[in-house]
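Pasting as-is:
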Amino acid sequence: MSHWLIVGLGNPGERYYSTRHNIGRMIAEAFAETKRLQFKKGRGNWLESECTVKGEKVSLMLPETYMNNSGQAVGEFIRYYKIPTEHVIILVDEYNFPVGKMQLKQGGSDGGHNGTSSMMAHIGPAFWRFRFGIDKQFGPGEMADYVLAPFRQDEIEQRNKMIERGVKALILFLSGNPSRALQQINAEKEL
């Protein structure tokens, strides 16, 4: 049995809960809900939960550090539980995608995302990036305010569908069918 880790990137606390930057955290929480899991305080600066998917051990974690220091908590977590970097999947917002678009790939650059950059600094680049569109409706110098704002009312339905598809995609991926999951996610096929 291998051990996987799903990391819902975001900022802790009520103030940031429904912001665009927290879409990864929302998806991790939705995944936990479908498995009827409760998060508990971890041994470090994170919340954690655990389940199995088709015989695979799956840990979920929500770093309680702010987005820009996520890698610190994840590094501590994987060293303690001896999870290889190749078995880490981060759920992260992507402003270069429209709301609803998802992409899953292993390795690559940080794409200008501070959370991903922190992950690379602490655990190397071999983890999986599962990116979720938050759109790019901001001008020069407005990015921080934009990602820390909630989704607009007219985006909520699309956001909720993306959360639902994200959870289904994770389950398909972890059920021993990563290539099929990748194909369906990246070709935007129905899951």
